[in-house]
């Protein structure tokens, strides 16, 4: 997974928090007795979260670019103000904008890093609305992301999006997942609405939008001897994705066999078009969260 300790230091904010640099991207590095983490200011993107005594819970592609232009492959991208290809760029613009470090708070329980993104000339060129995003990232015994979305415009607008978590796993063909619900939209079958079982195992690629997930999804990973829990709120769906071998080979920012050790379980607000999704009145806010934790099995 991602190596943070040998990156050049740009600024020391405290004993636990430093700013480091990888290629053209600045990263907030957190080293605490509970966990270590890395958060890219480009994209407001959590790259790594490793609780004490555990392998990293997040997967990062060894082939990902860090050029400050193309989105980063792995970790937890912020997809907003839309999810998927209903607008351009794909998955919105938040993951390719430079976020600001608002504050960090430290305690015995861990570190909370808050990042902000506001509407600008660059974002208005893509999406003609005023907004303010606050992403609170709590790093401790578990990892909690809370994305607070506020309409600062005088007009009503709609949005969709996702916290697109790439989970680090031992072997894609040995994991099993529950809690995602049974009904799903299958992106690999022309958006056909399908019914599945209560437990999911995989022998081929998957790209599904589960429309009635539980708040908690559990993934059993016998190879790494742990279960990962993913608790989501503020969502209307859970997206499960793995590209499998052919798509991995076709993607320039993934190695050929990378699909074997990653699985996406995403806290998502799905919408089939830009005019649907969640509607925010001027001054109103909505919060989308995901909390990821590991338990030994």
UniProtKB/TrEMBL annotation:
GO terms for biological process: carbohydrate metabolic process. It is an enzyme of class 5 (isomerase). It catalyses: alpha-D-glucose 6-phosphate = beta-D-glucose 6-phosphate. The active site is at 164, 266. GO terms for molecular function: carbohydrate binding; glucose-6-phosphate 1-epimerase activity. SUPFAM superfamilies: Galactose mutarotase-like. The keyword Disulfide bond does not apply. Its EC number is 5.1.3.15. It comes from the Bacteria. Belongs to the glucose-6-phosphate 1-epimerase family. This is Putative glucose-6-phosphate 1-epimerase. It comes from Vibrio quintilis. The lineage of its organism: Bacteria, Pseudomonadati, Pseudomonadota, Gammaproteobacteria, Vibrionales. The gene is yeaD.
């Amino acid at each position: 997974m991602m190596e943070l300790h040998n990156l050049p230091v740009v600024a020391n904010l405290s004993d636990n928090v430093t700013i480091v640099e990888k290629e053209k991207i600045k990263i907030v590095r957190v080293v605490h007795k509970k966990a270590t983490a890395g958060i890219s200011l480009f994209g407001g993107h959590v790259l790594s979260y490793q609780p004490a005594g555990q392998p990293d819970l997040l997967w990062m592609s060894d082939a990902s670019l860090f050029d400050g232009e193309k989105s980063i492959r792995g970790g937890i991208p912020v997809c907003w103000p839309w999810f998927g290809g209903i607008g351009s760029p794909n998955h919105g613009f938040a993951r390719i904008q430079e976020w600001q470090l608002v504050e960090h708070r430290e305690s015995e329980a861990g570190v909370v890093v808050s990042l902000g993104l506001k509407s600008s000339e660059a974002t208005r060129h893509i999406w003609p609305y005023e907004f303010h995003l606050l992403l609170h990232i709590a790093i401790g015994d578990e990892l909690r992301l809370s994305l607070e979305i506020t309409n600062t415009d005088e007009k009503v607008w709609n949005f969709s999006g996702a916290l697109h978590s790439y989970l680090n796993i031992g072997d894609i063909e040995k994991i099993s997942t529950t809690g995602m619900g049974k009904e799903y939209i299958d992106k690999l079958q022309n958006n056909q609405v399908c019914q599945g079982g209560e437990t999911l195992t995989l022998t081929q690629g998957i790209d599904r939008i589960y429309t009635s997930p539980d708040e908690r999804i559990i993934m059993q990973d016998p190879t790494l001897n742990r279960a990962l829990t993913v608790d989501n709120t503020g969502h209307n769906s859970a997206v499960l994705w793995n590209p499998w071998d052919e798509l991995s080979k076709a993607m320039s920012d993934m190695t050929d066999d990378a699909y074997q050790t990653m699985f996406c379980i995403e806290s998502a607000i799905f919408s089939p078009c830009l005019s649907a999704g969640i509607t925010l009145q001027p001054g109103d806010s909505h919060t989308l969260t995901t909390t990821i934790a590991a338990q030994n099995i």
